[in-house]
Structure formats: structure tokens, C-alpha cells
Specification:
Helix content is 9%, strand content 46%. With 172 residues, the protein is mainly beta. It has two domains: 5-89, Elongation Factor Tu (Ef-tu), domain 3 (Beta Barrel), CATH 2.40.30.60; 100-170, PRC-barrel domain (SH3 type barrels). The radius of gyration is 19 Å and the shape is elongated.
Length: 172
């Protein structure tokens, strides 16, 4: 597994006069902020544990008060920083779903043994995710029929070779 922390929101700006901040969620469901009182602030490459309270949640933003940041000036210094949770406090995923952070860096193969390189990004298209292999050399829709095996612990993804020929978008 590739990361110990997951970004759940990016701090956009101060909110109000008491140091609260507006957070743009980077998680699929902003309701995951409900009851969140401990998190990590990703700031200048470090993960700082923080106590927080959530005072408002909408589908597109969350208002958070972070202990130790009590003025708009202090809150403004957090612009662009990320709120993160550690793996132990991440949401539980349904079967056959994965954190994007765990997919990036996985080596990819097909059922015929061909190697394609590593996953460099995952695009969320609405219908299904698309795995980018080697910065666009190959794009693969994350469909059950193409995914023969996904093993994030071993950082390995195997595509069904026949289906990949149909649905894969090769740069060459």
C-alpha cells in the first residue's frame, strides 16, 4: 500500500472572523466529515495532527474550525493545505473498490503476460474510472470485465487480454 495518509479536503480560504476555514472535499462523499474531530494537516510536506470541529457540511464544501487557528490571518496561512486522515481512520470501501492512492504505482499486465508499466493516474469520468498507464501510453476503463485481478498489496493489476484489446486506448 502506497500511502499512510489520505487527503480528504483542500483548505480554500478563511471563513468568518474566528479562524474557521472553508474546505473543498477531495473525497467522494462530504458526509465523511461528520463526527471528524481528529485529522492531519498536510503542510509544507509534513503531516501535523490537529483537533478540529466541523460546523457546516454541503455537497461542495465543509466549514471547519482547527484548534490553534483562531484568527482569519492564521486561517489564511492554511490556504492550499490539505486535511488528511490516516489509513486507520479512512472510510471502509465496498468490495472491489480501491483508494486511488493505492492504485497509483501499481504495475500492470495482461493475462497473456504482457507488461504495460505502472498506473500514473486515475481519472474519474462519472461512468467509470479510467486508469492511465505510463502518463497516457495506455488508458484503460476500470470495468469489471477488463479487470482480471487487482492486488493493491502487491501493487499489481492484471487486465483480461482479450477485453483490453477491445476497450484499451493505446497511444501507439
Amino acid at each position: 500500500m502506497s500511502t499512510a495518509f489520505f487527503r480528504i479536503g483542500e483548505i480554500a480560504r478563511p471563513h468568518g472572523v474566528h479562524g474557521a476555514v472553508k474546505v473543498n472535499p477531495t473525497t467522494d462523499d462530504s458526509r465523511r466529515f461528520r463526527g471528524l474531530c481528529e485529522a492531519f494537516l498536510e503542510l509544507h510536506g509534513e503531516y501535523l495532527p490537529v483537533q478540529l470541529s466541523v460546523s457546516g457540511i454541503t455537497p461542495t464544501s465543509v466549514v471547519v474550525e482547527i484548534a490553534g487557528y483562531e484568527t482569519p490571518e492564521q486561517a489564511n496561512a492554511l490556504r492550499g493545505a490539505y486535511l488528511c486522515v490516516d489509513r486507520a481512520h479512512a472510510v471502509r470501501l465496498p468490495k472491489d473498490t480501491y483508494f486511488v492512492a493505492d492504485l497509483i504505482g501499481c504495475k500492470t499486465f495482461d493475462t497473456e503476460g504482457n507488461a504495460f508499466g505502472t498506473v500514473t493516474d486515475v481519472f474519474e469520468t462519472g461512468a467509470n474510472d479510467v486508469y492511465e498507464i505510463e502518463k497516457g501510453r495506455l488508458l484503460v476503463p476500470a470495468l469489471k470485465r477488463v479487470l482480471h485481478e487487482v492486488n493493491v498489496e502487491e501493487q499489481r493489476i492484471v487486465f483480461d487480454a482479450d477485453v483490453l484489446k477491445e476497450v484499451g486506448l493505446f497511444a501507439d
